[in-house]
Each structure stands twice: as structure tokens, then as C-alpha cells.
Amino acid sequence: MAEINVTPLVDVMLVLLVIFMVTAPLLKAGVPVELPDSRAKALAEAAHPVTLAMTRDGAVYLDDVPVASGELAARLTALPPGADGKPMPVTLRADKALDYGRVIAVMGELNRAGFTSITLVTGAATAEPQIEPALEPALTAGSGAGQ
């Protein structure tokens, strides 16, 4: 018999495929952040976006590396541009317990450094998000045209 039996090889390859399929999603989130939920549609993922994570205690991580509060602007301007010469797209993962002003301050630093393509990451919500009763009058009052 001069043939090679490839059945064991196929079995090993299928097991490796399953292992990689299970572990790949676990490798995405390096900094543990409790994301807010949203019913927005998922966007297509960029090839190598810059990931900026903000934890519950206000710590900022640039691609899983901690950044001191004063050096965020310098670290952002030091990032190389993409292949097309434009700044890389940024993925911002902010904990839902953070102060809104802190998230906006980091977004302002991103804009000042030239990053205009910022994606806010949220969790997938299965039900309609609950709006606190204290916020409902402010949301309905400010929903008029021209405001």
C-alpha cells in the first residue's frame, strides 16, 4: 500500500481550528472594562486600529500599555500614520461608570492629536436601555429641531 492516510492529519487540524476559534475572541480585550450596552449595529472592524481603554478608576491604556495622565497627548502624536498617510482609526473602550467629562476630555485629546475616526465600543444589549426618570424630561425637552 503506497498511499498516505490523511485522516489523523485532518482530525488534528480540525481540533486546532476549534481551539483557535474559541480562544481568538478572548484575546481581544486586554484591559478589563465594563462596557455600556447599546442596540447599535456592529461596524466593520479595521485592520489594526489603535485601542484606547479607560478603566473604572480613570486609568488610560493605549494598546494595553498604561499611560500617565500628562503624557497622553505626547503618546498620541508619536503614533505613526496608517498606510494611506492618514491617522489610524481609534477604538475607545470606556467603562460605563466613568464620568462623561473624563471620556470627552480623552476624546478631545484624540481630536487634537489628529485622530478623527473614533469608534466607541459598547456591549450588545438585548433589550431597550432604561433611561433614568430624572433624565427623561431633559432628553425630551432638548429634542427639538435647531437645538
The number of helical elements comes to 4
Q: Which secondary-structure class do the elements indicate?
A: alpha/beta
Order of helices and strands: HEEEEHEHEEH
Question: Distance between the terminal alpha carbons, to the nearest Å?
Answer: 81 Å
Q: What is the makeup of the main sheet?
A: 5 strands, mixed
Biggest sheet strand order reads 4-3-2-5-6
CATH class of the domain at 48-76 and 87-126: Alpha Beta
The CATH architecture of the domain at 48-76 and 87-126 can be named as 2-Layer Sandwich
Global mean pLDDT: 76
What is the rounded Rg?
21 Å
What's the helical proportion of residues? 25-40%
Strand content: 15-25%
| Gross morphology | extended
Number of strands: 7
The CATH topology of the domain at 48-76 and 87-126 corresponds to Nucleotidyltransferase, domain 5
Low-confidence stretches: 143-147
Which characteristics define this entry?
single chain, 147 residues, Nucleotidyltransferase, domain 5, 7 strands, 16% strand, extended
Report on the structure:
- There is one protein chain.
- The chain has a domain at 48-76 and 87-126: Nucleotidyltransferase, domain 5 (2-Layer Sandwich), CATH 3.30.420.
- The N and C termini lie far apart (81 Å).
- The chain contains 4 helices and 7 strands, in the order H-E-E-E-E-H-E-H-E-E-H.
- The protein has a 5-stranded mixed sheet, covered by helices on one side. It has a two-stranded parallel ribbon with strand order 1-7.
- Helices cover 29% and strands 16% of the residues.
- The chain is α/β, with parallel strands linked by helices.
- The chain has helices at residues 7-23, 72-77, 100-112, 136-141; strands at residues 37-38, 50-54, 60-62, 65-67, 90-94, 118-120, 123-124.
